Amino acid sequence: MESYVEHAPVAALAHVVRTVWIQRTGDVAYAQRHLPAGGVELHFPIGGRPHLLGPLTGPQVEVIPARTTVVGVRFLPGAPPPLPVALDDLLDQRPGLADLWGGTADRLAEAMAGARTPERALALLQRHLLREFHGDAGVDPLVREAVRVLMPWSPVTVDAVAGHLALSVSQLRRRCLRAVGLSPKVVQRTLRFQGFLALAQSGAAGVAGLAADLGYADQAHLSRECLRLTGLTPRDLLGGEVDRCCCGHDHTASYEPFLRGRARFVQDPAGARGI
Fold first, then answer.
1. Measured between alpha carbons, how far is 160 from 133 in angstroms, rounded to an integer?
2. d(CA 158, CA 176)
3. Cα 15 off chain centre by
4. Which of 77, 92, 121, 191 has an alpha carbon within 20 to 30 A of 181's alpha carbon?
């Protein structure tokens, strides 16, 4: 049986890591559909070669072999681990982690393979991130603030975000491309769709209602964005339901930051946006 279990990261990584997970495939290979989430991911197949999943602009299907266990980390947009290249150079790419970290990646993968359980391997990986990357090291504070403002629930223009940060639009674009891999507008569209998935995961009813809640022009607009970002219609993606994706996985840990932000906005729209 294939399984996928998400967890919130350890508290000291919560400002840079969105979620961590353990995925196990059963007796047959599993086709995993990766969706644009705004941030990069680290994938460590136990006993295999780890890789980084760069920022995505569309769906990417990976066939995970049978009887494989993968330990993963998904970083928040604009808060990747230290890398030797700008993130726009990794757009829609899946490079081996050894190509980016050298021998450190191989030693870490070997240590994780020697852990007794995937849970211990995940704990080892998080300890490594805490020790080596020192949280905010290399994180652009202006891009972090731009990502916060571009989160869904209250429409805001890229011009307004640039003004809020005392940057020109072109300066904001350059900094986002370097630190996120995406332009501010694409970041906004990606985060808005992640907001849709968060509401669907939480059990909110009605695709049309969700579209309006997130600022889509109408249900057709949401459907077009869903097809562009996932390769599937909302109905196909959600398996005919609006309380789970068709894979059947529980993504509560991944989407909780979006729902927390929505709750703050509902309580205080002006204060939650801060712009």
1. 32
2. 12
3. 13
4. 121
